[in-house]
Design brief:
Blueprint: H1 2-19, E1 23-24, H2 36-42, H3 56-67, E2 69-71, E3 76-77, E4 88-94, E5 97-102, E6 107-112, E7 131-138, H4 152-176, E8 179-183, H5 188-195, E9 201-210
Antiparallel strand pairs: 1-6, 2-3, 4-5, 4-7, 5-6, 7-9, 8-9
């Protein structure tokens, strides 16, 4: 019986070491893509996607463009943040699991190994697109501890901050010939539970990214 228990424990540990892994990203290509005016001209929303995934380089460029660090000496980001709280956390729902983007190391930290893409929205296209971004306001970074009441006025600038990040995603996707769409239709309570969020972490927006179906 003990040998059998050790066998299952070994399988569990091996399974977690294989599947529960963070993702290291290559350095972003900061010189590629179309001009800003071209990207603005071609920016649009897509509601139909293939099931083709993004390459690691595409993910690296996308996440850095969205919310990466562009002034390392000050740890400032590619999108503005009111009071420089940088309270928006960007989660990435991939087929292999849910990840948190860590700008300081430009990497993805695995939160769990569940495919939560279909849980990030109510639209059918969220299921098979390459990835879904979930923008979460961690109000602890703005001084709001767990248990403190948080109302809409507290979240006002977080909605603006998330929208700025989402626009960066739009511009990158237009430049890289990918598709995206920002979404407010999210089963927030169910998704927050699946993500393991705390009471002072609020889902603000979601955004689908992938290869548009022609």
């Amino acid at each position: 019986m003990k040998k059998l228990s050790f066998f299952y424990l070994a399988l569990f540990l091996i399974g977690n070491s294989v599947f529960a892994q963070d993702i290291s990203l290559p350095a972003p290509d900061k010189k590629g893509g179309k001009t800003l005016m071209q990207a603005l001209n071609e920016r649009q929303s897509f509601r139909s996607y293939t099931d083709e995934g993004l390459t690691k380089q595409q993910m690296s460029d996308l996440l850095w463009a969205a919310w990466g660090i562009n002034r390392t000496d000050q740890k400032k980001r590619t999108a503005a943040s009111a009071m420089n709280y940088q309270e928006i956390d960007m989660y990435v729902a991939l087929p292999t699991g849910l990840y948190l983007y860590i700008a300081e190391s430009h990497s993805l930290k695995m939160i769990n190994n569940k495919d939560l893409r279909k849980t990030t929205g109510t639209q059918g296209y969220v299921n098979n697109a390459a990835l879904n971004l979930v923008f979460v306001a961690d109000m602890g970074k703005a001084g709001k501890r767990e248990g403190i009441k948080i109302d809409d006025s507290d979240l006002f600038m977080s909605y603006a901050n998330a929208a700025l990040i989402a626009q960066n995603v739009y511009l990158y996707c237009a430049s890289a010939e990918l598709g995206c769409i920002v979404r407010g239709s999210i089963p927030k309570e169910k998704l927050a539970l699946e993500m393991g969020l705390k009471s002072n972490q609020y889902i603000i927006l979601a955004q689908t990214v992938g290869h548009p179906r022609k």
